[in-house]
Amino acid sequence: MAEQDTQPRGETAPADFAATIERLEALVERLESGELSLEGSLSAFEQGVRLTREAQRRLDEAELRVRSLTEGNEGSGDLQAFAPPTEHDGEG
Q1: Domain 17-70 has CATH 1.10.287
Q2: Annotated region Disordered: where (predicted)?
Q3: 58-to-8, 15, 47, 62 alpha-carbon distances in Å
Q4: Is the pTM of this model over 0.85?
């Protein structure tokens, strides 16, 4: 059996992670309202699964980017503690 498209016809993936989460939250609200028919609930649930997978894919990509930026020359994971910006950062 062939894998189905990740987006239904006419629907595009949100442009960024925050938009994906916003759409997912809106779907959850619709589902929790109890106003959808069974078919509408199933459709919303399917959309939610697709959005969840998209959000996870984006998180995985971000994690890989962070790891590649923080790894040492030999591939060791020498992570540095995060230091929040000070008042003087960015001035100059």
Answers
A1: yes
A2: 67-92
A3: 19, 11, 17, 6
A4: no
